[in-house]
Amino acid sequence: MAGELAWFIANILPYITLAVMTLALVYNFVKWLVIPRPVVWALFPAKHNTVDILIGIVKKIFVLPGPRKVDISVWILAMLFHIGLIISLSFHAKYILLPSLGPVEYYLGAAAGIAAAIGTIGFFIRRIDMAKTKVDSTFADYFALILLMATLTIGAYLRIGGIMDHEHMWLWVRGILTLSPVDPPTHPIFLVHITLAQIYMMYLPFKTLIHPIAILFGQKVVLDERHIYPR
Amino acid sequence: MVEERTIEKTEEKVVEIPKWRRVFDDYRAMSDEILRPDEPKKEKFLEAMKKSLSKQNWPFLLPYKLTLEACTKCGTCAEACSTYIGSGRKKIYSPVYRSDMLRKIYKKHFTLTGKLFGSLVGAKDPTEEDINALAEAVYRCTVCRRCALACPFGLDNGLITREARKIFADIGIVPDELKENGVENQLKYGSAPKVPYEAFMDILEFIKEDIEEEKGIEVEIPVDKKGAKYLIMNNAGDYLAFTETVQGIVEIMNYLGEDWTLNSPRTGVNDVVNYGLFYSDEDLVRVMKAHVETAKKLDVEYLVVGECGHAYDALAHFAKDLIPPEERPFKVISWMELLDQFIREKRLKLDKEKNPEPVTFHDSCKWGRTGGIYEEPRRILQAACKDFREMYPNREWNYCCGGGSGFAIMTKDDFLKFRMETYGKVKVEQLKQTGAKIVATICSNCKGQFRELINYYKLDMRFSGVSELVANALVYED
Ligand code: HEM
Ligand code: SF4
Ligand code: SF4
To answer: What pLDDT band is residue B16 in, cutting at 50, 70 and 90?
Structure first.
């Protein structure tokens, strides 16, 4: 029984997760794409050609000028969180291809994890504080952060505790990627970790991953000053 | 129906100030006759909201739905909003709180997750009191859109305010200053304050006499001249209260000997305001079309938008998406662009010494953030004034004066106090820091708000349009 559950969590759920994520993400994107083009109500300085608009959007994504100008705490937390996340995820990806970590990667990876954790905890505390001063967050908002914190904490525990047999984990990941699943690691904490991670990933498109998509449309609307009738 | 009355003693007499039942905060923007707080309106509201979420509302549907659905509630927008900051950071005035009042209804009635998971995802079925509160809440935001500039995702709480105002307008809830005594008067009488032809001509006569007396020069004020190159259309407030601005324009155009005209109410509409912009797309377009018809009737080459910010937004921007070019056979330009062009062509001889006092410039939201007219007024003021000083923050990050989206003409109950004690506070600090004696601005609504602010906070400064400062600096060759 336990073996079947482990097999399901480790070798079947990943495909379901991937399918749910992909479909939901595509839906989230197309949903905005099919809404008719709005009138221009740009915020100046705005742009009047596609290249400048694209550059503008990229700048907004990487520089986050709004938070930097008016609320530096959001800017710091967002930078810590996202940069931490990007480094951490890219090391995960690299590890799948080359299952070894050099000392630099080891410490950089740890720093990235800590940065992401500070960002996450920071956002959580901020939400509690904002309920007094700005707006109430919903259970769904907190749930996204709780899932993330739980996943990160257990992940860190697995790593610091040296619990996992990396060789075995690597074979399991390879198995999923090559569509020929092998027996997964069955440490219960590991199974909890990947279960949470997958629930989180399925939850992402319905909550957290709305914002990276929305930024493309939202910033385009305020950056684009090309009228329907140019004259 | 007046529920509560306060008696305030002044030196001479006892004045009774009506106070309506509080439904959102300590203020009321709309009277009981308009808001009808005891009349059930939830069903009608939901019906109108459904319409606002349909393709019928295509001009704003994308940013509207995007803001409703994608807000992460990060709270950045709050720190951009001067109602919020000026109020001492009261939660109810934060942009995201206000939008969330509508978002809760949206989730409950128009999304599957809201229907399935209810309050877990922030959905709430509104009570009649929630609807009343929202109706007032959307008149606590000047739609300055500084929050939209700050939002990391470009989401627009100002637009949400406007969309909610549209829903309420659809069910007959709009401040009478904007609709009955605004748009409807304007379309019927040619100007919102109903200035008749004779009175209008008298105003121009006074202006002519004033210039001739002060400057010892003769001026012509062409009115309703067909086929003129420039039709300069002003805000009615500039004819009635801030006459110096029109006086400045008249003097400058005479100095240049340009082919221009003003227009009287007989030609259609001679008040460039468009209050429809603040609460309804239908009324926005009705007024815009009336402006277009007037300019067509006079067969002018340029419709020049005088010192009125939101009129520029309507005519220079929305018209380009909502009225096909063949229906508006003239160009729209702002008076600032034109004046800047005259100065750059060196056609105006100006002596800065004639404006020796320190001058600062207030970027009106509708001219700046949503209009893109930043550099023209600065070049003009630098050419006409000895000591021009920037206000900080400025340009796209400037704070709204607090008179935007119709507030400048709204004073019911103690709404004026709201204007003074929220945005007003922030603006006054900004003004003080400049050390300027004159705050120049190119919007009649901003002027109205500055008049009150200077009075309320006893500031040692005055406000001015840009035109009169330029006229004052003109050098006449003998
Ligand atoms: C286009 C790129 C992105 C931009 C510009 C961006 C920006 C932001 C900003 C400004 C915040 C703070 C707002 C908040 O409190 O929610 C934030 C939060 C967050 N972002 Fe992103 N993000 C991007 C992509 C991503 C991606 C791909 C993920 C994937 C997991 C992600 C996950 C998160 C999480 C978990 C939070 C904290 C959310 C919370 O407080 O509930 N972001 N992001
Ligand atoms: S800044 Fe944007 S995402 Fe953040 S709370 Fe405000 S509207 Fe929502
Ligand atoms: S539009 Fe202006 S007044 Fe309204 S919420 Fe945004 S910043 Fe505040």
So the answer is: low
CA–CA separation, A201 and A207 (whole Å): 10
Q: What is the pLDDT of residues B61-99, one digit of tens each?
A: 999 999 999 999 999 999 999 999 999 999 999 999 999
What is the spatial distance between Cα A136 and Cα B96, in angstroms, rounded to a whole number? 9
Q: Are A41 and B63 in contact (CB under 8 A)?
A: yes
User: According to the model, what pLDDT value does residue B3 have?
Assistant: 41
Determine the distance separating the centroid of ligand 1 and the alpha carbon of A211, expressed in angstroms. Answer: 6
Cα of B174 from ligand 2 centre, angstroms: 27
CB contact under 8 A, B79 and A137: no
Rounded-to-integer distance, Cα B431 and Cα B448, Å = 16
B76 lines ligand 2 (CB under 6 A): yes
- Token pair for B379: 């070049």
Residues of A in contact with B322 (CB under 8 A): 39
CB contact A19 to B (< 8 Å): no
Q: How far is the CA of B319 from the centre of ligand 2 (A)?
A: 29
User: Which residue would you say has higher pLDDT here, A168 or B151?
Assistant: B151
Q: With contact defined as beta carbons under 8 Å apart, do B446 and B403 qualify?
A: yes
Residue at B319: amino acid letter: A
Q: Residue B126 in contact with residue B104, Cβ under 8 Å?
A: yes
CB contact under 8 A, B148 and A43: yes
Task: Please write the tens of the pLDDT for every residue from B183-219.
Answer: 999 999 999 999 999 999 999 999 999 999 999 999 9
Sheet (strand B302-305) strand order: B260-261, B230-233, B302-305, B331-334
Q: Are B384 and B355 in contact (CB under 8 A)?
A: yes
Distances from the Cα of B391 to the Cα of A69, B364, B433, angstroms:
16, 12, 8
Most informative mutation of B94, B134, B161 for ligand 3 (most atoms within 8 A of CB): B161
- What are the structure tokens assigned to A181, written together? 């699943």
Q: Is B74 in the pocket of ligand 2 (CB under 6 A)?
A: yes
Residues on chain B touching A132 (C-beta within 8 angstroms):
91
Residues 79-138 of chain A with CB under 8 A from chain B are 126-127, 130, 132-138
Q: pLDDT tens-digit profile of A142-153? A: 999 999 999 888
Q: What is the ipTM of this complex?
A: 0.94
State the pLDDT at residue A2: 65
pLDDT at B1: 37
How many whole angstroms separate alpha carbon B311 and alpha carbon B317? 10
Atom in ligand 2 nearest the alpha carbon of residue B150: 1
